[in-house]
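note to self — DONT lose this again. spent like an hour looking for the file last time. sequence + predicted structure for the chain T wanted, 322 res
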Amino acid sequence: MNRNTLLTFLLISACCFFSFESRSEAGVIDVGDLIVSDFSSGVLFKIDPVTGNQTVIASGGGLLNPGGIAIEDTGTIIVAERSTQSLLRINLQTGIQTTVSSGGSFVNIVGVELELNGQILVSDAGADALFRVDPITGVQSTVSSGNLFSDLLRGIAVESNGDILSLNNSVLRIDPVGGSQVTLSSGPNFQASANIAVEANGDILVVDREAFSTLGGVIRINPVSGAQSVVSSGGNFVDPFGLALEANGQILVSDFTTNSVYRVDPISGVQTLLSSNGFLDQPLDMEISHVTVVIPEPSSLSLFSVFVAGLLGHRRNWKQPA
């Protein structure tokens, strides 16, 4: 069989093998799915809230050591990439990663949260500051710095009135306009505070890695008095870190050491395993998706085109016998 005949045979075989669908779905992020950033594995993945199955949704490119994440209303994900001190925007439908903002005032960015108007908040444990980043231009401005902030600055949350909450081994409330800082709650339970969230009724939840005599656990704080109460501690927790709230009020907590995500009952504090191992190595942040995003895979026609292009390229390199 000469090379021209072989090429024709391969093209006909390829036509039979590839379907010509213009698009097919590689996966869907549903409302309620848990999105996780893992510092060590360098990926973003989703966890099914029922089965606990893990599926990678973004990797490679600028993702090396992702930290804090936030999900925009369009379904794009803002990521604090700690290796390059950059804010990335990941479009899951196209796979395109773009840099929203980098360098400038950033020194050691940790937490990311969205304000009610879509502006991006970033906590920086190196600059001892809370920054606001314009989601379109990427311009950085300082919301608050110094004073009660230190290199222990961690997670961020936004209350329903727009006030900002942050962690510095205490719960701080920051005025979003003037930047004034007030200590809402502090004490011996705050030893290595990692993440913070606001419940539907306005109560505040904090995950601390060494609270309750180093057992680690979840603390509930009254948003008016700052009074603390124990939600859950010990048990499966070894090094609890990530925190997310489901729509029904259930609490999700990731653990650095057990490489697991646990669901915690907000009343009883009972812990149940949702997902473990897989891509869970050093899960730094978690967010519940509030939008549905369809993640396409390359169409069969595109794959066929690549296949044909490769064959033609090889044909051009074939040498005719002398």
